[in-house]
Amino acid sequence: MAFNRELSQFGHYVFVDDTTGKIGITTTSTPNVGIGTTNPEYKLDVHGDARVTGNLLVSGDITYDEVVGRNLNITGVSTFVGVSTFQSDVFIGGDLDFKGDLYQDGQLFIAGVGIGSTNTRIGSDVITNKIGVGFTDINFVGSGLVVTGAGSTVIVDLTDLEVTAEATVPSLALLSSTTILNNIDKNKSFLTNTVGAGFTVTLMAVKSPGDFIEFHDTESTWDINNLMVETQNSEQFKNHLGTIDSPLACDVAGAAVKLVWTGNYWRLFT
Question: Going by C-beta distance under 8 Å and a sequence separation of 6 or more, which residues neighbour residue 208?
Answer without folding.
Answer: 261
